[in-house]
Design a protein that fits this description.
By secondary structure, the chain is α+β, with helices and mostly antiparallel strands. The chain contains 3 helices and 11 strands. A hairpin with a 2-residue loop joins strand 6 and strand 7.
């Protein structure tokens, strides 16, 4: 289920065993800056620490469609395997062992789904204003890996576009009101480059 208290990131995947309906992907690349969004030519980055998943709750992660519905695989019965390696977090799903899995696999093979994303919550992060880089230090919980019609990597880009609209007095969505955004986040032309990134995320995503 897509909710505002979770965050979402996209990743690529491959079918590695057609006979047994095995799908693999690297969900996370550690210590590699990724452009989270770009606004007015200014890029904002995110890095995931190589130790971010060390204490994360990954006891019951499910493989689903669009972050909801009946699982095609799950960690609890070992049909979904998650492995932390030096360079990232890898997933391997066996879609042959459930009633839903073969259906998902068929949609993957037929090109209905060509991307994936995963949902999680963050326990601890930091933000470097000089480099405009958010670093995720500790993941609290990993909820699912999901084939997705539209991978949710650009969730924050959409949010910041809304915030920018509010800052220049052109609200684009009634759900987010100008009063929700602290005035210190805004300048006459848009979002301040001194914005506290984690605070803004928490403010808009709450």
């Amino acid at each position: 289920m897509i909710t505002n208290d979770r965050q979402y990131r996209a990743f690529e995947f491959d079918v590695v065993d057609e006979e047994n309906k095995i799908v693999e992907g690297r969900a996370v690349v550690f210590e590699q800056p990724t452009v989270l969004f770009e606004m007015d030519g200014i890029k904002y980055y995110e890095v995931i620490d190589r130790n971010a998943f060390n204490n994360a709750n990954m006891k019951d992660v499910v493989f689903v469609e669009n972050h909801e519905g009946t699982p095609g695989a799950r960690t609890r019965n070992n049909t979904l395997q998650l492995e932390i390696r030096d360079d990232g977090l890898y997933s391997r799903a066996d879609l042959s062992k459930s009633s839903k899995g073969p259906s998902i696999y068929s949609d993957i093979k037929n090109g209905i789904y060509d991307r994936m994303s995963f949902s999680f919550t963050v326990r601890k992060d930091s933000y470097d204003k000089a480099t405009r880089t958010r670093k995720i230090l500790e993941i609290d919980r990993l909820f699912d890996v999901s084939v997705a019609t539209l991978a949710h990597y650009f969730k924050h880009s959409t949010i910041f576009s809304k915030v920018l609209s509010i800052c220049i007095s052109k609200p684009t969505e009634k759900r987010i009101k100008p009063s929700d955004i602290p005035i210190s986040f805004c300048t006459s032309s848009g979002i301040s480059d001194e914005v506290d990134f984690p605070e803004l995320l928490n403010k808009v995503l709450k």
